[in-house]
Amino acid sequence: LQVVARSDWQRQKAFSGGHRADISASAWSHNGALLVTSGVDKSLGLWETRSQRLIKTFDDVQYPILAIGWHPTDNVLSYTNNNGELFIREDFVPQEHAKHLNIALQPAPMNNDPLSEVSGNARKQMPNGPKQGEVRRSTEDDYLDDLLGPDAMSEDGAGFIEDDDGAGYAEEPNRFGKRPAGALESRPAKRQAPVSAWQPQIHESFQPGSTPWRGNRRYLCLNLTGFVWTVNQETHHTITVEFYDRQEHRDFHFTDPFKYDKACLNRKGSLFSCPPSNYTNNRNMLYYRPHETWTARTDWRTPLPSGEEVTSMSLSESCIVVTTSTGYVRIYSLFGVPLKVYRQKSTPAVTCASWRDYVMTVGNGPVGGEGTTRLLYTIENVKREEVHQSEDILALPEGVELRSVFWSENGDPCIYDTDGVLLILLHWRTPGQAQWVPLLDTKTLERLQSGKKEENYWPVAVAGNKFHCIILKGGEEYPYFPRPLLSDFDFRIPVSDPPSANEDDDDRDAAQQKTLESQLVLASVNHSLQQDLVENTNATSAQKSELPVLEREVDKALLQLLAAECREGEERGMKALEIATLMRDRSGKMLEAAGKIAQRFQRGVLDSKIREVAERRMVGLVDEDDV
């Protein structure tokens, strides 16, 4: 399929390799980011415009397609075949590529600068200025002449003013045969905006852990504590709360006349919010129910001001956080005492999450180059009123949306995006130093490398150095009933591509090297997270004792890398020495172990240099690379 420029009919980029027969139909998506083509051999292919890459083929077409059309806004494709049938395919673009439908208008795939090609194809203005020596007429004169029609002295019609008596009240005609008209009494106050004015695309608000309706059921909350689900009974709802640890908490079930649409659950209690209704005097309402109390049960409800709706909420062990449609962040105690109310800087609000006294809010920020707003986040300690990160940018690439926000078991912010990447925030307690580090890219899981499985993953939690999620098969995006089982995956920082099944010995050794490098980076991240916790909080003795353990894990990964370099040969000695200098242990035991590894592989020069590094550290000298 060849792209041709309209200006000079020169050949540009080409889409090749997708069909074995003639093309029968093709259509661009509404923004030009995707191209769909069909062939007379009953083939149907989906292309990415920017790279001219075939990203999906469809084998379920029974008759040749004659015409194709995209939906102007949704992920829907319609086509007709030579059998007279019309097909409407929803979710035509796979989930991992659906982000291309939400970006701004894309240029045509040209060999040269596409923007110059677009401007070159535009219709050129014809020169219509006055010739030399002519008097230029103003635009207002032409406008009034067209509005009032031809006058008496023009050649186009009879006039309505005749200067019969020579009194001179009729002005002399100009060289164009027309008399100038008087100015209008008033002009429009301001220019009217066009009907189809451009507006940026914002991220809609969502409640972490909740799913949309499917039939008459939906999940309101899913986490490691348990799950909350509701059933629509038309006149009312019924809500069920179930726990994974039924020895600690008992499941409960109640009738819901308020029709709660959001919920949070933890070990202390459950939180619900409902939309305005007759039961709530047309106001949003919060409802908190503790699991256990040492007095009588203290359920409480509190309404929000009129016209204010809950967009997201979170529940921690010490507070309740609510973001509203008016841009306010409302913080309550677990007994309903309002602690703080402030207006969020980045609006409209998207979501929020909390852990103990820490609150993380996410909102829409400035508009990016693709026409979509960038997400900004703020982290605050509401008890000490300390802002750790203020309106920092959430690290999401172009076309990728936020799927979930939550805190890890150890109290570090985590996000999960629509690309299937899990990220954790490093150094977030120091203002301006926060970094989003990828812990796992689910597209690189070994279970997906065969290409036979089509899976998505619903994020649940980060605990025990694992990613807990729900596996969604068959292209599903949300979990459904019966209650799904939880799965967990080890972290694997994407340092390189995952190893493939068909590898020779050399490739296998290289893959083992990359695995060790990934383990080193992961151990360094875990050590940095624990070090931030110990240095910035009142850490317990167990947390402090965990820090040297994680430090040894980093050094163990370095020793494994050192052994791999020594195994390769003497020419890898300089890299092996660099690895030895990265050892964090200051007692000298790890450098002594590194020297023994060099001796085992008979690397005498490397052994002597490692001894020099160890001696310099023992006497307190700084390594040359550290200066």
UniProtKB/TrEMBL annotation:
A GO cellular component annotation in the UniProt record: nuclear replication fork
Highest taxon of source: Eukaryota
GO molecular function annotation: chromatin binding
Ranges for domain WDHD1/CFT4 helical bundle: 515-618
Region (Disordered): 107-138, 165-187
Domain WDHD1/CFT4 second beta-propeller span(s) in chain numbering: 204-495
Keywords in alphabetical order: Nucleus, Repeat, WD repeat
WD repeat boundaries on the chain: 16-57
Pfam families in UniProt: Ctf4_C, Mcl1_mid
Location within or outside the cell: Nucleus
GO biological process: DNA repair; DNA-templated DNA replication; mitotic cell cycle
Protein name (record): Uncharacterized protein
